Every structure is written in C-alpha cells, then in structure tokens.
Amino acid sequence: METIELKVDMVALHEKRLRKCLSKVKGIERVEVEASIEKVAITGYANRNKVVKALRRVGLRAEFWSAHNEILSTYATGSVMFNTYSFF
C-alpha cells in the first residue's frame, strides 16, 4: 500500500468534487483532505499519474506534494514563530 500526497488548488466546494472524482479511481482505499494547506493524502494501490490525471480531468489543478509546498504552507498558516529583536 502506498500513500500519495498531492497539492490541489481548491476551495470548500471542490472537496466534494474531489472525493467524487477519486471514488471512481480503482485502487484508492482512503482519502484525507487538509483544505487549509490544500493537501490531499491518498492511500491505496492506485497509480500516481492516473490519480493526478483524473483530478485534472475534472478541472482541479493538482501536483505532487514536495518539501517546497510544506514550507509555503507553514508560512501561509502562520505557524512559524519569528524572533523580534530590538536594537534600541
């Protein structure tokens, strides 16, 4: 069993469409959606490229999740703490 992590551009309405689309792809056992950081984790035996192709076919922009996306989502959610220094 393999876990595929994707970055999918979506709003609240797209989650239902995303789940419906992925329910038609054979080999997918579980779909986890983190809408706040636009991350979708898919567990199963499905081919990675077929999953992305299916999402793009219904009009969703999808790409494989990378470390770069992890850094950007951290800044977007505001979970990074900055040290403030006072020079005066």
TrEMBL record:
InterPro entries: HMA_dom, HMA_dom_sf. SUPFAM superfamilies: HMA, heavy metal-associated domain. GO terms for molecular function: metal ion binding. PANTHER family: HEAVY METAL-ASSOCIATED ISOPRENYLATED PLANT PROTEIN 20-LIKE (PTHR47856), OS08G0512200 PROTEIN (PTHR47856:SF2). This is Heavy metal-associated domain containing protein. It comes from Musa troglodytarum (fe'i banana).
